[in-house]
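fwd from M.: "can u put these together and see what the complex looks like"

so here's what she sent:
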Amino acid sequence: MSQSTPQPIASPVEADTPPRKSRSALFVQGAIWGFVVLELIFFSVAGRFLSVSDTAFLDLDNMLLLLKQSAPIGIIALGMTIIMINGNIDLSVGATFALSAIVLLDSMTWPFMAAMGDWAIPLAWLFALGTGVVLGAINGLIVWKTGVDAFIVTLGSMLGYRGLVFMYNGEQPTSHLNWTLVDFAEAQFLGLHTATWFLLGTVLVLWLVMTRTVHGRNAYAIGNNREAAVNAGIRVGPHFLINFMLIGFLAALSAVVFYSESGSVNPNDGMLYELWAITAVVLGGTKLSGGYGSIISTLGGVIAIQLLRKGLGYIGADTETVNLVIGLILIAVLFLDRQLNRKGSEELKI
Amino acid sequence: MTALTKAGIGGLLARQGILVAFVVFMIVFAIANPRFIDIDNVSGVIRSSAILGVMALGVTFVVIGGNLDLSVGSMMSFSTIVVLDLHDTLGPTLAIPAMFALTLCLGAFIGFLVGYLRLNSLIVTLGMLSAIHGLTLMWSGGQNMDIADKWGTWFGFFGRGSIAGVPVPILMFALAAVVLSLVLSKTPFGRKVYAVGGNGTAATFSGVPRARVVFMTYIISAACVATAGLMQASRSLGSQNTVGQGMELEVLAAVILGGASLLGGSGTIFKTVIGVLILGFIQNGLLLIGLEFYVQYVVTWVIIILAVWLDVAAKRSRLWSPIA
Amino acid sequence: MTQPVLRLEGIVKTFPGVRALDGVDLEVRPGEVHALMGENGAGKSTLMKVLGGILQPNEGRIYIAEQPTVMTSPIEAKGKGVVFIHQELSLADELTVAENIFLGELPRKSFGRVDWARLYAETDAILSQLRVRFDARTRVGDLSIANQQMVEIARALTVDPRAVIFDEPTASLTDAEKSVLFDVIADLQKKGVGIIYISHRMEEIFRITDRISVLRDGSYRGTLVTKDTSEDEVTQLMIGRSLDLSRNASHHELGEVALEVRGLSCGHLYRDVSFNVRKGEVLGFYGLVGAGRTEIAETLFGLRTPDAGTIRIDGKEARITSPIDAIRQGIGLVPEDRKGQGLVLGMNCRDNMTLPQVDGLTSGPFVSDGAEIEIFDRYKDKLDIRTPSWRQTVGNLSGGNQQKIVIGKWLSMRPEVLIVDEPTRGIDVGSKSEIHNLIRDLAAQGYAVIVISSEMPEVLHVSDRIVAMYSGKVMREFTSEEVTEDSLIQAISGIVPDRAA
């Protein structure tokens, strides 16, 4: 390194854009989309020989339906991405989803709501979303104030919130069909279903948050090196709180999208959603240890899982194979990631 | 020296706090409803906790070794379905060892991935949760599995029988707890589990075969799951595909409640048994005072958070977290 | 005289049962590089925590530009122009250089958006001051350690600093990188910034500082003017006595060759390394961090697979593919990172010590308590390990006693060859000489010992022979008679002897 010749580093200041991605990061984040394309090709080709149905796999209606069906888990998985970039995890989203759904449907039967006509709908949504935010805030506050690991906190509240779900209406399903709401949920705008619009809207907003805002960049910093973030004056506690409120909100939004159409909640609904969401996030390449991950890749992970479900069904495989295949793919992704990051023979064998 | 002994006493309280809480809890409920400590009731609670308990014993090894096992629930469904199915095709004498062998294969696969390939245990066992569920569905063809001749088999012994008036599930749980407790606290292998979970790198630098130790913890966990599956199948003589669904997190809750750290290197079998019993008696106590079963979920939530919070608070010697 | 930029007066900080700082004074003038020295545990880091607002002093005052000030957080300290550059890099390596430099204070636009244009412009301005060659948009993880250190320094320049505190900044830098760092310090000096420089490296202290303040046992021992003092005087002030650093070659007969290594290579970590060590001999390995010394030790212990070369133990060719192989063939390794690699901190003293041989200490299927305690007690006495009981958690012991547990762990295995990597890193001076004597004793008892160290006095003090390494190669081997400090420094800096002559 020569000190005698000062090197001006003046990098051309480009337009007001966030940092570009390194090539390897692009490769890793592109991998999930490559996988999605592979799935499409495989199921289209295999479908010709094996399919029991007459329509092609790549049929537009089929694909639109796929996007719509991706929405409930997808919206939750997007929130989980942020939580995991923070280096936390949230196991309570399934229960939050169910409780918000109950509030959504039950609130429309409340006497004063019945008197409000169609105005009851946005209000019910508000109640449901509020429920999600409050449940998320409880998690966030406990993580912040007690310093107990988020895994344990949300493992506890997964049980606790599920208990609240049961206490609301015992073991009975909670039902309320509002036809205006069902029409809205089943509507298609520019070809896409309402649920798909919610999914894409969430992707857009969260992508902007994570790449363009101070809060998003801090989320990466905290997950990447928490101590450094603390030393730099980032207030980690409130930051966590906001993100847990956000994922609570998204779990509730997912419930709003799904139950507006179906109109009936069982107290066991949403069980294992946390595990599906985490699977999608990990498939998208987000690191469990935090500091690394992307919203767009999570969308890829969500679509990849849904394609697999639909595709296996399309080529006549039983639904049970889906669980097996997704589980093994998750492990294979982990294995590949590890192989790609190996330093070869120079690595210390510990 | 006085400071040291004081710290020793404080540390002892912190370590045994959950035991103290358990005793207090039992006394309060016994006063509220004397039937609570009735011998039949106590025996009933332990019996119904035995399946969860045996699984928790195995997961304790995995957690002390510094890993997680989220697959035990779906693996238990697998064992149950397989043993019920084989019961009618192979007969009970062959079905049981065959089921154990198959379950141990699953455990070995996980142990290989986590131990030898060093893949993240949370994700591996999450993937296996799904994969084993798929295997179970494929085995059963999506149907419930029932033993054809429920009254003509001795198979019900493990779930329904009793020896000298003590129900067999309780005996199996107790036996497993004693054996595994000795393995963990007294054998060289047990010592190595603590070392690997406490600091895997230092264990390697001391010549401890880390991969093999982790592998063995998953084998032990799978053996416990197979035992639990046997008890479950034997008790019900018929089962759904999803009998163990969600148990992975309840099991983990019991282990954490017992005070094992998710970071590895700490915990004991005795404490896990306490954790299991607390969960069982809470459920029972709430039922006895006339509350629905699901109230226990909320109570368990509060208790887990409080237990772990007090534990970390004792370690950092301040109640509230230093997070800004 | 100009007024000091920073002055600490009578700082007292007590913890339950300990008086960590006992009336410490410190004064830093503008444009001055002021060294702060003292053993580990002397109170340097406590003092810096008080200065940075992480700890509140019980007594005493802090003045910035002669204004009495109360510091409540590192952020506030930074706002007042007092900036810390920490020993351990505190960077987020997935983020860019610019984002790291402005971590916690990213410029904002409406809706909480980051003002990228301003961020990059300001970063470029700072980077050009430092004359570095990387871009504001580079991912920090892609930079070399030295450049990461530059990012850390760049952080200090986001404010107009009055005082900059460097805490062991050169620990992982090469010589070339060090001189860049020293240029930056000189630049800051010219601007009238006061600098506190914390280091254990005398040579650097005497190269760049103006004055030296010394702490011992939490109290202020005085300030010396660098150009009027000597290393001996500073050392005496630090430890209250002169340290005996005389050569200490063996006076006993050496035995057979215990370990012989021929042509060992491993990737680009080290190439064609040959040496041997005899029973009763201490072989020193000296070189900079990254020269390949630790990697050779790890290979001998079965943690790395060599591409080529042979290892002979007691004359027989040995195949070592795992630590278990290495232990079986009589090799013990006291690793460099005591807490990360040497000990399971949450386990008790006895269990740590007997860990490698616990399989052999059984009666029936169970570990025999008696056999374990016997071993522990034997080595506790032999090594003078100070702990109330074997039940004590290792994490609660002092660094010196922890190191003795690790050494005891291997001695109790009666190894042919004992490798000790950085035997006294992070250990206070008193325990240091104890460990040095212990190593000499082991050799006298007939053990073959390899000592790897980055501290020249240490290598000179304990070794019978010294292997000097540079960039993965053995440059030269010295006997204790022929070695001089100059020739050793040349060898580890890559200067070939005959060209230097």
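replying to her w this: The first helix of chain B runs from residue 2 to 32.
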